[in-house]
Specification:
This protein is α+β, with helices and mostly antiparallel strands. It folds into 2 domains: 4-145, N-terminal domain of MutM-like DNA repair proteins, CATH 3.20.190.10; 160-284, Helicase, Ruva Protein, domain 3 (Orthogonal Bundle). 27% of the residues lie in helices and 24% in strands. The chain has 8 helices and 13 strands. A 5-stranded mixed β-sheet has the order 2-11-5-4-3, with helices on both faces. Strands 1-9-10-6 form a 4-stranded antiparallel β-sheet, covered by helices on one side. It has a two-stranded antiparallel sheet with strand order 7-8. Helix 1 (4-17) runs parallel beside helix 8 (213-233) and helix 7 (190-200) packs across helix 8 (213-233). It binds a DNA duplex through residues 1, 32, 60, 75-79, 106, 110, 127-131, 133, 172, 180, 182, 189-190, 239, 278-281.
DNA sequence: CGATTCCCCTGATAGC
DNA sequence: TGCTATCAGGGGAATC
């Protein structure tokens, strides 16, 4: 699922592709993805004739800055991903004109929103579960929307002291839940919280107040290392996430626990366990992750 | 107010 | 074979 490394990969790829392009048309078959403006006709008017000036990431949000001064915000949620290519409609179905993953991988076939550029290229949102969120905001509305988010974990000035200060806002919380709390730190989800805690050798249910200074440091270090590693790999490949090219990321080579229930821990050989924490799966090694 | 539960959605998978 | 029940899960709303 798209977390910080996947969203970062997406915006880096897109920057190579769609900057300066002019929008000429927009299509959707799922209007409920578009949260505002509520009416699709107005949403479309806000896009057509505009140019893409810049693309940024904040937490798990993709921010596309338009020449009108407004911003197109896309949150991919669980199964959404942006694709860059050319499609044509054949018998009510969008068929990719580009060979490779874009046309063969079934995950790339759930197109629910397409933005058409003047030069014939297209930006599409593929989303099996239709949970993604798309909206156009003014800069003020954007600021308000992002105000709740915690700091960026990879910012240079997000020091260990700041990390500790953020985490300790949830003293009673379980560390996995706290790492995934977007108000505490932005961008970490289910996959990377598991991977971070495995690397730091900390049990996901451990309460924040019970973490030693040394353990907090291990989590901080693992967080930076894993997120950077995942970005350099181009994101994960275990879920529906795909890069704008339609291809999977390469993080699978480094994945240690997520979705490895019953398999051997790469560190100690014990069987990886899965438990539920707040409706979500948590994978961990019951032997080398200390509670 | 904080913590928990429900809900959005649909392909994959298990069970019969 | 084919049907039905269950599951996955980010985040916002509803509820405890």
């Amino acid at each position: 699922m798209p977390e910080l490394p996947e969203v970062e990969t997406t915006i880096r790829d897109l920057k190579e592709k769609i900057l300066k392009k002019s929008i000429v048309d927009v299509w959707t078959d799922t209007k409920k993805l578009i949260k505002r403006p509520k009416k699709f006709k107005i949403f479309k008017e806000e896009l057509v004739g505009k140019e893409i000036l810049d693309i940024k990431r904040r937490g798990k949000n993709i921010l596309i800055f338009l020449s009108s001064g407004k911003v197109l915000l896309i949150h991919q949620k669980l199964t959404g991903h942006l694709l860059f290519g050319k499609w044509e409609k054949i018998n009510k179905e969008w068929v990719s004109k580009i060979a490779g993953a874009l046309s063969t991988d079934p995950t790339n076939k759930f197109l629910h929103l397409i933005i058409f550029f003047k030069d014939g290229w297209q930006l599409a949102l593929s989303d099996l579960r239709k949970f993604a969120k798309v909206e156009i905001l003014t800069k003020e509305e954007l600021e308000k929307e992002l105000a709740k988010l915690g700091p960026e974990p990879l910012d240079k000035d997000f020091t260990f002291e700041k990390f500790r200060e953020r985490i300790l806002k949830r003293k009673k919380g379980k560390i996995k839940q706290v790492l995934m709390d977007q108000e505490i730190i932005a961008g970490i989800g289910n996959i990377y919280s598991d991977e971070i805690l495995w690397k730091a050798k900390i049990h996901p249910l451990k309460r924040v107040k019970d973490l030693s200074e040394g353990e907090l440091k291990e989590i901080y270090k693992a967080m930076k290392e894993i997120l950077l590693k995942a970005i350099s790999a181009g994101g994960e490949s275990i879920s529906d996430y795909r890069r704008p090219s339609g291809e999977k990321g390469g993080f699978d080579a480094f994945r240690k626990v997520y979705r490895r229930e019953g398999e051997k821990c790469f560190r100690c050989g014990s069987k990886i366990k899965r438990i539920k924490i707040a409706q979500r799966s948590a994978y961990f090694c019951p032997v080398c992750q200390k509670s």
